[in-house]
Amino acid sequence: xxxxxxxxxxxxxxxxxxxxxxAASGFTFSTYFLTWVRQAPGKGLEWVSTVSSTGDTITYAxxxxxxxxxxxxxxxxxxxxxxxxxxxEDTAVYYCAKxxxxxxxxxxxxxxxxxxxx
Length: 118
Known about the structure:
By secondary structure, the protein is mainly beta. It is built from no helices and 11 strands.
C-alpha cells in the first residue's frame, strides 16, 4: 500500500522558515517523480514544485522560486520542502504526491498545514 505522510507544518511568523518532510512507503521511491502541491484556505490546488526520481531535475512555480527548495533522500524514502522567507500568502495545506510514469498524480498524502501569521 502506497503511503505518503507529511510533517513539519505549523505556525510561523512572516520571514520565518520551515522544512516540510514527506515519508513514503509502499513503492520503489527512487524510481518516481514526486511533487508538492498546496491549497490555501478557500482556494484551489496550486502546484509548487516537482523533483525527478534522481533529484537532478527540479521545477518550481514562479511564485515560490528563490524561496522554496525541494529535495529528496532516496536512501531514506523521504521528500523535503525547505521554505524560507515565509509570507502570509504561503498559508496553506501542503501535500506531497507521487507521480505515475505517465506524469499524473496517482497518490496523495493527507497534507500538513502551514500558517504564516504574526
